[in-house]
Amino acid sequence: MKLYSFSPTPNNRKVEAFIRHFGLPVEIYSMGFREQENRTEGYRRMNPMGKAPLLVNGDFCLWESNAILCYLATLHPETGMLPNDPRGRADCDRWLYWQAFHLINTVIAVRARSKTAEKDVELNIGVLNGQLEDREFVLGDLSIVDFAIAPYLIGRHGQAIDYEPYPNVRAWLDRCNQLDGIVATVFRPKGK
Asked: What is the dihedral sign for C-alpha 2, 5, 158, 119?
């Protein structure tokens, strides 16, 4: 398997972090967006969206980061990162959808200094804070959900959010920042 990635972005980082955390047998290829590798005809055949990440497994090409996380967790049940009961899986899916639709828009609103940013943070970071009450991780135990959400709130993407009113989120981020896969995917400019 091969992952085409562009590490600094949260969608790429979440997949790379998961792969690295568990030492999964996936080759990680760092794409050159300056060279516009994602716009080549060959790449667009694999991913018509022309974005990263993209996972290639034989003749199967999978794009969309949360779909890739689910696929890898399904291929590697030994990681224990994907609930196998219907209720647990539905809860997992709920948080993956929440990240893809609500959290991403909150982060965008904060970075753009949108008029709705404060309300978006209060709602969405507040919801996450409530979920983390008496829990180490979003679903209780570490799961793909933590790998999906954390990269949006770690680093430059989440720096503009004041986490002071959200102690459960702060504590969770501290735990996520200690995960081997998260640590391994911290963006470092070349030569640093």
From this structure: negative
